[in-house]
Amino acid sequence: MASLARPGGNITGLSMLLTDLAVKELEILTEAVPQAKRIGVLWNPTTPSHVPAVRAIEGAGDKLGVHLVLVAVRAADDFEGAFATMVRERAGGFLAVPSPLFTSYGAAVAGLALKHRLPGMFGHRDLIGDLGALMSYGADIDDLNRRAAFYIDKILKGAKPSDLPVEQASKYQLVVNLKTAKALGLELHPTLLARADEVID
């Protein structure tokens, strides 16, 4: 790809800049659990975008004054051990860097978070409702799907993909599950709740 503005070849689409997104997720999590001085980071070394995202998170952790406990998770079988590591390292919360693995096994991750009483930040809103995760911050997937349909329409009408810029997501959603917060004994600050796009009671 030549550039996001002019991708060239036969490619275009929509994108989320994971480095910026993961940093914002860490910032919001530290607001939710200000007493936590150690934060776990679940990441997948086999996901190419995770290496630069983890570097960005490490830089943000230094600025926020929190110690990061990096825990690699390559497969579903690693989740139990990952949570055991975070508990052993006295993490006061954790960030799951968005990936297909964490989304596919969201119920298991959310369940382990409740079992170990660890407040977690996720990248996908779908994990918050019935699955019981504490909070998520990520791109508005419905908006991205609408934008994708717009691109498909343009291409079907003759536009060349190479002439269509790769668009960054422009709408993001913060979702908070108050029921989970209460189960964890966590009192979230009113200013954080006021910023949430959705609060689940």
Task: Show the helix and strand layout.
Layout: E1 14-15, H1 18-32, E2 38-43, H2 50-64, E3 67-72, H3 79-88, E4 93-96, H4 100-104, H5 106-115, E5 120-122, E6 135-139, H6 141-156, E7 167-168, E8 172-177, H7 178-183, H8 190-195, E9 198-200
Parallel strand pairs: 1-7, 2-3, 2-4, 4-5, 5-6, 8-9
Antiparallel strand pairs: 6-8
Can you describe this structure?
This protein has 201 residues and is α/β, with parallel strands linked by helices. It has a single domain (14-142, 168-200), classed as Response regulator (Rossmann fold, 3-Layer(aba) Sandwich). 41% of the residues lie in helices and 18% in strands. The strands form two sheets. It has a seven-stranded mixed β-sheet, with helices on both faces. A two-stranded parallel sheet has the order 1-7. Helix 2 links the parallel strand 2 (38-43) and strand 3. Helix 1 (18-32) packs parallel to helix 2 (50-64). The longest helix is centred in the C-terminal third of the chain and has 16 residues, at 141-156. The chain starts with 13 loop residues before the first strand and ends with a strand.
Return the string of H and E elements. EHEHEHEHHEEHEEHHE
The rough form would be described as globular
Annotated CATH architecture: 3-Layer(aba) Sandwich
Can you identify the CATH class?
A: Alpha Beta
What helical percentage do the residues reach? 40-55%
Which properties best describe this structure?
globular, seven-stranded mixed β-sheet, Rossmann fold, alpha/beta, 201 residues
Put the structure in a nutshell.
By secondary structure, the chain is an alpha/beta fold.
